Amino acid sequence: MERQKEEIDGSCEFCKRATDTTVHDLWTCSKLQPIRDAWFSRKMILKGQYNNFLDLVFDCFSPVNVKNSELFCVVVWRIWFCRNSTIHEAKKHKMEDVVGWSKEFLQEFRRSNSEVRREVIYDDIRRGRWTPPDIDDYNANCDAALDQGNGTVGIGLIIRNSEGNVLAAGSIIFEGTFSIKTAKLMAILRCIQFSNDCGLRLKKIESDEATVVKWIREGLYLDSEYGAIVSDINRLIDKEKETAVCVIRKMLWVIRVHRVTVIEGMEENMFKPGVSPVTAALRESGLESSNLILGFDFTKSNEWTGKVSFNNRSLHAIGDTSNPYEKAISIIGKTLAPFDDDNLIPCFGFGDATTHDQEVFSFHSDHTPCNGFEEVLACYRSIVPNLKLSGPTSYAPVIDAAIDIVEKSGGQYHVLVIIADGQVTRSVNTSDGELSPQEEKTIKSIVNASSHPLSIVLIGVGDGPWEDMQGFDDKIPAREFDNFQFVNFTAIMSKNTTPAEKEAAFALAALMEIPIQYKAARDFGILGRTTGKARKIVPRPPPVPYTRRALQQVPSNLSSPAIDDRTQACPICLTSAKDMAFNCGHMTCRECSTKVSNCPICRQRITNRLRLFT
């Protein structure tokens, strides 16, 4: 780069805002979030306890630091190697073998790399410029991946000598094509150009796309859309004379021969972290104190989304055993309590009959915060019997209230934990590709929150569905930093493990991104900053009993049929008109009727449905 008079820039080439490091690329960079989401959701062709990369990350790589990030890279590389041998050689690999090999490899790599740097590399850099090695049988392997949704292509290539040692490797991303064959051709072209830049004359270029190799060899399709690339490749090959392009029958991405070894006596804590490693990760990130804000979803769907996960009870049912909301609060409290200096926790409710999707109410009538998690739970249990669950669902009001608190604190770091049973409301009139009014406001609030030192964690309780929320982050446009995370509480707590392991897994899933987001807010200059643009939010007081008589007639976690029948709006989504009647006489809209098996009003089992036409 110095020779070509190019400026050497250490910042990330994707977001242009932070120093380019392993931790940043893997976990922090907001521009790479779609790639991370795609990778972490992939299934792994491996025997063992992990179904996808996200399970592996939760279990093996806490806390998030440089050391664990390096190990993660090696494990992913090893998984890719095992994937190829699974596909081409029908071999199966166990996860403990993969992780064991990776730890040994990384230890050896660090040791040898440290020795080489001390004895050779530093001296060479000081004494003279790098020169190409002698002529050898250099082989290159290249591949391309195409995202047909946006026409983006990622190319990777690696150059080895006859002994299998890696001499150079590179990658590039470019846009503007929707053809996988064009992507494969571009990979070969870039591979030749890259080798020339490195001063390495290739003997062989390997590609797994037989069709494009045939085109290059026989000079086909020169008059087609691929012709220009094929011509460029052949021109470079003719210039080199001895370069051959071949099809590889078996992908072999090996740096050198290395035996697979399982490290005996490996600590169980490596694979089953408790709650303490989560707290340690927060400490290691530099997080000394954090202020917690809690938001509770009191929409009507809480009455039936506990059918499977909570024994057909309302998720807000108060009894001798803790409901999902209380359990989630308790686990979060155990982990974050050491970081809350004043132990004051602002708590808000939303989605009930007094707030709907427009406002929030405070747990105290004078808007003071709760003093510790014990008071949070006590206030929650006293408020629930007075509530009338309603809707629609929007997270915008509680996010706006949290932003106002952060602004008033002078830009102190806060974590907003929203516990909810449902996705942001989408009415039947919202077409695919469009956003509902509630979605638009929620997304706008999340974007606004990224200008403040505020992390948002959405915890999903109940039966769901949660498909929209799992991909909700993709709908959010560019932000100051990646400040939103969704965690499926029900999925984690339904795993076949001990209660302690479930709590640890949930705490890790809910808070694993907090160290990264805190560091991003600090590095981007957001921490300690106020904008002066936050909306001034005045919460409503907590709901009070309607009348003593009403409370005697209506169970605390159910709504009155008379009140629900006064409007023609569906009692579930509160946006569409009622057009589906049940055997009990109550009605909902057609779309919502498919989601329930018990009447949302009287809880009677639905045996008949009658479509109404106007």
Automatic annotation (TrEMBL):
One of its GO terms (molecular function) is RNA-DNA hybrid ribonuclease activity. It comes from the Eukaryota. It holds the Pfam family RVT_3. GO terms for cellular component: nucleus. Residues 570-603 form the RING-type domain. InterPro entries: Copine_C, E3_ligase/Copine_domain, RNase_H-like_dom_plant, RNaseH-like_sf, RNaseH_domain, RNaseH_sf, VWF_A, vWFA_dom_sf. One of its GO terms (biological process) is protein ubiquitination. PROSITE patterns: ZF_RING_2. Keywords: Metal-binding, Zinc, Zinc-finger. PANTHER family: COPINE FAMILY PROTEIN 1, E3 UBIQUITIN-PROTEIN LIGASE RGLG4. This is RING-type domain-containing protein. The lineage of its organism: Eukaryota, Viridiplantae, Streptophyta, Embryophyta, Tracheophyta.
